[in-house]
Amino acid sequence: MIVLYSSLKRYLPDLDATPREVCDVFTLTGFMLDKLIEINYLGRSDYLIDLEVRQNRADSLGVIGLARELSSYYNIPLNMPGPFNVNYPDNLNNLPINIKAKSDVKRVKAIKLSNIQIKASPEWLKEYLTLYNIKSINNLVDLTNFVMIETGIPSHAFDLNLTKEDLTWEINNKETTFTTLSGEVVKLKGGELVISDGETPLSLSMVGGRDVAINNETKDVILEMGIYNNGLIRRNSRDLKIITEACTRLEKYLDTESIDYAFEMLVSLIIDECSATISSNIFDEYITKPKINEILVDLDKLQRVAGIDIEYHESIDYLTRLGFNILETNLANILVKSPSFRTDIELEEDVFEEVIRLKGFNNLDTSKLDVNIVKDITPIHLNVIEV
Prior knowledge:
This protein is an alpha+beta fold and 387 residues long.
């Protein structure tokens, strides 16, 4: 995951740490730094931070998630855009969407937008997407990619001049060919999660199709966001040899609750930037809601695991900053509820890790380690290359 330093500042106006200091904090809190690059963005000096996000941290595959981490560490406000004040008219038609693959679809949210003015994107958006190696297409498509980068939630738009409103989410059961947005022709053999018109696949779950792509003549679209069985998405991606920015997110345990914010942001931007109007009720089929874990945490045991003193109030403060709800406190035991976006939190030990990493792994007493440090066997020529 790459992120602009100025993007983090956009969500964290009180952030006064330098780009290098921010990188050090990410490293200390469990994110591996690949590289820090000084660049020129919109005519100003900026920094691109390239991080290796762990497989289980789907919440950090968007700028907002990474800004949230810094907000927790520095204990500064997270300046989230919104409320977006989208005006949804009453008594509009319902979309005739059909979710057949209910065991592999967790949630789909969709809406029809009309009177769209397709044009080239503003320069700031074109330049922003270039940083992520995403080619600018037009204002609507570019906004879907922008919101994915910001929130971590992918979306698709279907041109209603090229298809009907009654889209179907289903498992493909026949051999056929499919042409992606980039023009790549892939062979479907069955077992792929697709969005179809009831007969022909129009889109794969992780990449759109060329036959219904947004173009300069587009006026009406169905905009959708979905979260699916991530294991199936990963298998489909590997079998078809398709890796996209959307795929790298959809194959993780994304938070279904986060769709609401991302959807509102995207609809608001399209209304503002594309002069669109809303012409249907919101479709929202929520099949699998997230399991929000309530975990009993022994704060005495936490200190024994950490090997250092961590005051009870300090642990509670760290967890509160990270979005945990403290449900009960009883001496050294507390009952916490994990935030929905932290789909990786399941055990007491997971909560221990959260407290310890915010305390700082660098503050742990390594003299108490009862294991030998592994000898550095890195070949000297690799160290030279790194320098």
